[in-house]
């Protein structure tokens, strides 16, 4: 059933960010009314124009810090949403190591305020943006939701683990919230229209935007950190998921929560492809689909890098009725189209 009116409103915190903006598109396509809350501290207002081009209409956006209690309370009072997808968080691993208090204050306080407002305004559905970083370097692969969490490698990663615990404990205390924490693996790609995509501020921290910026001549060279790992070509292995597939998973999570007839619920679900790809294979596939060579060098291993991790996605397949649809070639082709648009 397609929701209507107030019953379709979903607050999307951090909705102008990479994953948030693509999820806004998927929500609209599924019949929901997403409402963005984003202070643009780690995103750009041009994303709103991109969304307008894709959707044919504006998406309501509140340029608000999710830690601002007065503003957030006002939004809940005015909009009366049926659910929240919570992306908003600081996310730079290196910065979190240098400024841990900044990360704990922002990422955890915003979640606490959100849960308090959801309880006060009787908003029952929450999808939480978590991460496979909670697994560290697992002893067995692929990673299932029962794989033990290991101590985080960074304060950023720890805020995701603590965030999961906060939600779990709140639900155990019988606050009337149903919540799913989605543990994503490595999002890549862009919307096929090239109207929205990943917009890293400064030097990219993720592999694919570094590849596309190097291919575009913005970066002189890409460093591959280590080629002596116990993998087929010696480089690290990750599970790379197209951002549009990831966005669709959030919509399926919202639908699952709405369709589950209980007052309180908490669960965690891996969102990935179930396949591991090496860094060198990502570079080779990019070169194959674009015809553009990437200038890269092999450097020493980087402290804190996990050797290999990829998901078991059985639970996402069965519980959410969701499966990743887009190929690695599709994702890299779309990421390059987006980079070319930015470079014009």
TrEMBL record:
Specify the taxonomic lineage: Bacteria, Pseudomonadati, Bacteroidota, Cytophagia, Cytophagales
What is the recorded name of this protein? Answer: UDP-glucose 4-epimerase
What biological processes does GO assign it?
Answer: galactose metabolic process
Record's catalysed reaction(s)? UDP-alpha-D-glucose = UDP-alpha-D-galactose
Instruction: Identify one Pfam family in the record.
Output: GDP_Man_Dehyd
Documented EC number(s): 5.1.3.2
Q: Which domain of life is it from?
A: Bacteria
- Cofactor field: NAD(+)
**Entry-linked InterPro entries:** NAD(P)-bd_dom, NAD(P)-bd_dom_sf, UDP_G4E
Provide the NAD(P)-binding domain boundaries: 11-333
An example of a Gene Ontology cellular component annotation for this protein is: cytosol
Q: Which organism is this entry from?
A: Spirosoma validum
What UniProt keywords apply to this chain's record, in alphabetical order? Carbohydrate metabolism, Isomerase, NAD
Say if the entry is tagged with keyword NAD.
yes
Q: In its keyword annotation, does this UniProt entry include Disulfide bond?
A: no
What does the annotation say about its assembly with partners? Homodimer.
| An example molecular function term from Gene Ontology annotations | UDP-glucose 4-epimerase activity
**Classification via CDD domains:** UDP_G4E_1_SDR_e
Similarity comment: Belongs to the NAD(P)-dependent epimerase/dehydratase family.
Give the enzyme's main class according to its UniProt record, as a single word.
Answer: isomerase
Quote the pathway field. Carbohydrate metabolism; galactose metabolism
- State which gene encodes it: galE
């Amino acid at each position: 059933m397609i929701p209507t009116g107030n019953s379709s409103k979903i607050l999307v915190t951090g909705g102008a960010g990479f994953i948030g903006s693509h999820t806004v598109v998927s929500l609209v396509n599924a019949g929901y009314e997403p409402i963005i809350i984003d202070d643009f501290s780690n995103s750009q207002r041009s994303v709103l124009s991109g969304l307008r081009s894709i959707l044919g209409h504006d998406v309501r956006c509140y340029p608000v810090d999710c830690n601002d209690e007065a503003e957030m309370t006002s939004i809940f009072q005015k909009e009366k949403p049926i659910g929240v997808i919570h992306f908003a968080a600081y996310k730079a691993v290196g910065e979190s190591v240098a400024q841990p208090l900044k990360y704990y204050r922002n990422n955890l306080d915003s979640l606490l305020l959100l849960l308090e407002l959801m309880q006060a305004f009787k908003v029952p559905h929450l999808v939480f943006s978590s991460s496979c970083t909670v697994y560290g370097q697992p002893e067995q692969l692929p990673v299932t939701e029962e794989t033990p969490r290991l101590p985080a490698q960074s304060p950023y990663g720890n805020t995701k683990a603590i965030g999961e615990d906060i939600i779990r404990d709140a639900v155990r205390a019988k606050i009337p919230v149903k919540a799913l924490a989605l543990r994503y693996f490595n999002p890549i790609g862009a919307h096929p229209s090239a109207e929205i995509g990943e917009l890293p501020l400064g030097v990219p921290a993720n592999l694919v935007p570094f590849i596309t910026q190097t291919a575009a001549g913005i970066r002189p060279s890409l460093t591959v950190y280590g080629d002596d790992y116990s993998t087929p070509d010696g480089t690290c292995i990750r599970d790379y998921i197209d951002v549009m597939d990831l966005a669709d998973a959030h919509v399926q999570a919202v639908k699952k929560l709405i369709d589950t007839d209980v007052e309180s619920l908490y669960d965690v679900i891996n969102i990935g492809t179930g396949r591991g790809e090496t860094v060198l294979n990502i570079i080779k596939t990019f070169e194959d689909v674009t015809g553009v060579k990437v200038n890269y060098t092999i450097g020493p291993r980087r402290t804190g890098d996990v050797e290999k991790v990829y998901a078991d996605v059985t639970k996402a397949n069965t519980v959410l009725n969701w499966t990743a649809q887009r190929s690695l070639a599709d994702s890299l082709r779309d990421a390059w189209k987006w980079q070319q648009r930015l470079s014009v």
